[in-house]
Specification:
The protein is an alpha/beta fold. It has a single domain (4-128), classed as Rossmann fold (3-Layer(aba) Sandwich), CATH 3.40.50.2300. The chain is 40% helix and 18% strand. The protein is built from six helices and five strands; from the N terminus they run βαβαβααβαβα. The chain has helices spanning 16-28, 39-48, 65-72, 76-79, 96-102, 117-128; strands spanning 8-12, 32-36, 53-56, 83-87, 108-112. A five-stranded parallel sheet has the order 2-1-3-4-5, sandwiched between helices. Strand 1 (8-12), helix 1 and strand 2 form a beta-alpha-beta unit. The longest helix is centred in the N-terminal third of the chain and has 13 residues, at 16-28. The two termini are 23 Å apart. 36% of the residues are buried.
């Protein structure tokens, strides 16, 4: 498995504070981090370079996390990218339907907001190692 210094994580969240928090957790461990404020911006980042993992919020403007995850399955080079769903809407009307759909797409795990740094890192490391993880 590559070291954190060799590993890029794409953090996608429409909340600037959440993006900064998750980025700081990863950067403190040595990971390279690229960020996007919504699914559309994430597609632009994916076109620039392929990350080892995507940390993905579900409920976002322009392009939801679910729709972005679906688009990952349409390009061969993106299909294998593991996805960590980080959402506060897994059980409410805003995100429940998308959450249920995205978890059936495979190659993903999820955490519910608010997250703890250790829990987030553990999920990232498990996905990068090819292991399943759930909150």
């Amino acid at each position: 498995m590559p070291t954190p210094e060799e590993t890029t994580v794409l953090v996608v969240d429409d909340e600037a504070d959440a993006r900064a928090y998750m980025s700081a957790i990863l950067e403190d461990e040595g990971y390279k981090v690229v960020t996007a404020a919504d699914g559309q911006e994430a597609l632009e980042r994916l076109e620039e370079s392929k990350p080892a993992l995507i940390s993905l919020d579900l409920v976002m403007p322009k392009l939801s996390g679910y729709k972005l995850h679906q688009k990952l399955k349409t390009k061969r080079e993106w299909r294998g990218i593991p996805v960590l769903i980080v959402t506060g809407h897994a059980r409410d009307d805003l995100g429940r339907d998308d959450f249920e759909k995205v978890t059936t797409l495979g190659n993903c795990a999820y955490l519910e907001k608010p997250i703890k740094a250790a829990q987030y890192l553990e999920a990232v490391e498990m996905l990068l190692a090819g292991e399943a993880a759930d909150a």
